[in-house]
Design brief:
The complex is a heterodimer of chains A (403) and B (299). Chain A has helices at residues 16-26, 47-59, 108-117, 146-153, 224-237, 302-318, 325-336, 349-352, 355-366, 398-402, and strands at residues 8-11, 30-33, 60-61, 64-67, 74-77, 80-81, 95-98, 125-130, 166-172, 186-191, 202-203, 209-219, 244-251, 255-257, 267-269, 273-282, 287-293, 342-348, 373-376, 385-391. Chain A is of the alpha+beta class and 403 residues long. Chain B has a domain at 2-77. The chains are: A alpha+beta (403), B mainly alpha (299). The interface between A and B is medium-sized, with 41 and 27 residues.
């Protein structure tokens, strides 16, 4: 997919993942420079960014990456998104992707961009995330839990006409390990619905919250933590929404190999902790999620986690609009990749004022997408919401075009 | 959105209603507040009218009371009624286990939860809960009748002239026997095991002629019947030694394994035509022979 067009030039490490995703989707070469060049201690690409580059390489065919000696400059020539077609590193139709031990980011950091690539892949995307760096819970670095990805991000693809054969199976749970590094989780991701173009979306009515669901998880600690989190969260949420259910999942701690001198096959427990993921669904199908997990240093009672999570959910809902800050990037990117038609999405002002979203808009413009039209919402949310009109690029799935 | 409305109410100058309203710790009041913020303040119909009526009632009562020269309630007539309701109840609702299992299965699987599937669930469950008693009674009745019908159909050949649905005497025993067979008895209780050999031979001969006649008639009329059951051949398993560690081929006698000609042939596999392949030497032939033997065994 090497194009004759000159590479798009970007600066800094901000929004790096989405730049790479957009480059892959549009087939443009990108040249990103000054990646943390100001940092005297850790210049260049961070380990988790390198991990994502490796993941990109695994799911595409013919991608080229050049990283400068210090890691501050990256040139990425995207290939074709092949998914897990046989013969491209997939064993048994499943790409086995291993995350290194020092990983500080939750798995959702990799999953959400991967979900954006998956509908435009040539073959179904099946990835098994393993290794000593897979953290399924939410993390202090601000990543949501894998449960929330499944319950709050993946259902959004439904409104773009992408719904078949999507699975996110948590085979083993893990919270972040000591100092927030590493985990031992195992997650299987299947995205089997590939489309030529996502449908145009018009979502302009947030509706009312009709249901709250959630998952409380304990890894390697007693399950009573779950009950305590659930009780507190329900105490706050039940008076507001009677249809509130939080399910409990108790898992044993994952074991990762920790070889010693006299015992090379030794293993250690990692990723102990607990957390809560809540998802509120409105009558029009909008989803609002909240995620809190116990900090890796511990010392926080489950009641606090439950309370924080419930309040976080209420705060997310209070920001208004049809999407949460966590899901807005996904929605807007998919809308930009849709057919050449105007899609509309109501977004809370607090949500769209987010720097990452503004950066996404600028990046999209640089990738050649038409600018967003923004006007005030009508109706009851006139004060708090805006309606963003996004024109699709109509490129869609290059692999499908050939097939 | 909820928060937004909350904020609006905060901005609004305090309603005349608000101070009089009880502390808003229950859902009703929260919702009422939202409603007021959304539309216009309710003029507190429930509480105040109740107050008025009660005060009227009280005034009437007062008259009665004054007649009976008891003026204990006079002071309190103007105030709010002093009925205090104390509810000791957690905000948390008890987890209902009926919902739990199904909903858990629907929610905690690998698929992203779809809104449509889970909406139907609570509705059906509430319906179940509401008229479960009726349903259960009806189900039990239906099940009973169904069982009776099935039995009647199966055992109707025992009943002569539709005498009775519950058979008695000999018929009852026969019916019981049929039921036992239906639930897994190997043979009938009334199957005769011991009899003179002439009787048994007679029975067998009769069965054979019956079967032969049936087949013949079917053939004459052009009806295709099932294939006759294969005759049990006892001869093959007659003289094989079955001890553990015994030879799989041949016969072990007097400290030597005797191979019959048949055994040798079975070992060598089918004869090959001479002059067909013939290229390889001995080794090649041996190898191919081994292969073909394997093939013949599986086939």
């Amino acid at each position: 997919m090497a194009t004759s067009q000159p590479p798009l030039r970007f600066v800094s490490h901000h929004n790096l993942l989405y730049r790479l995703v957009l480059a892959t989707l549009t087939g443009r070469t990108v040249h990103i420079s000054q990646i943390r060049s100001n940092s005297p201690t850790n210049p260049g690409l961070a380990p988790h960014e390198i991990s994502f580059l490796r993941l990109l390489e695994a799911v595409t065919n013919g991608s080229q990456m050049e990283i400068s000696y210090t890691g501050t400059i990256l040139v990425y020539r995207p290939g074709l998104i092949t998914g897990s077609s046989s013969g491209t590193g997939a064993s048994g139709g499943m790409i086995n992707y291993e995350l290194p031990a020092g990983c500080t980011r939750g798995l959702s950091y990799y999953l959400i961009p991967l979900c954006l690539l998956a509908p435009f892949s040539k073959a179904p995307m099946k990835v098994l995330f393993t290794g000593p760096g897979v953290i399924t819970s939410s993390t202090p670095t601000g990543d949501m839990s894998v449960d929330s990805v499944r319950t709050a991000i993946l259902p959004l693809y439904n409104s773009f006409g992408i719904f078949n054969n999507i699975e996110l199976r948590i085979l083993r749970r893990s919270n972040p390990g000591p100092n927030g590094r590493g985990g031992g989780g195992e997650v299987q991701f299947v995205f089997g619905h590939q489309v030529r173009l996502p449908k145009t979306l018009h979502l302009m009515n947030p509706g009312r919250i009709k249901r709250i669901r959630g998952v409380a998880y304990s890894v390697g600690v007693t399950g009573s933590n779950n009950a305590r989190m659930i009780e507190t969260a329900r105490g706050i949420l039940n008076p507001l929404s009677p249809d509130t259910y939080v399910f409990s999942d108790v898992a044993s701690a994952p074991l990762v190999p920790a070889p010693e001198k006299n015992n090379p096959s030794a293993k250690k427990k990692i990723g102990l902790g607990f957390g809560l993921s809540l998802v509120a669904e409105s009558s029009t199908g909008c989803l609002y999620s909240a995620d809190v997990a116990s900090p890796p240093s511990g010392g926080q009672p489950p009641e606090d986690i439950g309370k924080q999570c419930a309040y976080q959910l209420l705060e997310t809902i209070s920001k208004g609009g049809c999407v949460t800050p966590a899901a807005a990037t996904t929605m807007l990117t998919l809308m930009s990749m849709g057919s050449e038609d105007v899609g509309r999405l109501q977004i809370g002002k607090d949500v769209i004022a987010d720097p990452t979203l503004i950066l996404l808009a600028r990046d999209l413009a640089q990738f050649g997408a038409p600018g967003w039209g923004i006007r005030d919402a009508s109706g009851e949310h006139e004060q708090s919401d805006v309606i963003v009109s996004v024109v699709g690029r109509g490129i869609g799935n290059v692999g499908r075009k050939v097939a | 959105m909820i928060g937004k409305r909350k904020r609006d109410t905060a901005v609004k100058p305090a309603d005349p209603v608000e101070p009089s309203s009880p502390p808003e710790d229950n859902a009703q009041d929260v919702f009422r507040k939202y409603f007021e913020a959304q539309f216009k303040p309710l003029d507190l119909p429930s509480v105040q009218t109740a107050d008025d009526e009660e005060s009227e009632d009280l005034s009437e009562e007062d008259e009665l009371v004054s007649e009976s020269e008891w003026s204990g309630l006079d002071d309190e007539g103007d105030k709010e009624p002093t009925v205090q309701v104390v509810e000791h109840k957690n905000a948390r609702v008890d987890p209902d286990d009926i919902m739990d299992k199904k909903a858990r299965k629907a929610f905690m699987n690998a698929k992203p939860p779809s809104s449509s599937s889970s909406t139907s669930k609570p509705a059906t469950i509430t319906k179940d809960a509401s008229d479960s008693d009726d349903d259960k009674a009806g189900d039990a009745e239906n099940l009973k009748q169904d069982l009776a019908l099935q039995r009647l159909l199966r055992e109707s050949h025992l009943l002569e002239s539709a005498s009775d649905l519950a058979p008695t005497g000999k018929n009852r025993l026969k019916a019981l026997d049929l039921r036992m067979q239906a639930i897994g008895a190997k043979t009938s209780l009334y199957k005769q095991e011991k009899m003179p050999s002439s009787h048994r031979r007679g029975i067998k001969a009769k069965a054979a002629t019956k079967e032969e006649k049936r087949r013949r008639e079917a053939k004459e009329n052009g009806i295709i019947l099932e294939k006759p059951a294969p005759k049990a051949s006892k001869s093959s398993s007659g003289r094989r030694e079955r001890g553990i560690g015994g030879p799989t081929i041949g016969k072990f006698a007097h400290g030597a394994l005797n191979l019959a000609k048949r055994d040798l042939e079975a070992m060598q596999g089918p004869k090959r035509r001479p002059g067909k392949g013939g290229r390889g030497g001995r080794g090649g032939r041996g190898g191919r022979g081994g292969k073909s033997r394997g093939g013949s065994r599986t086939a």
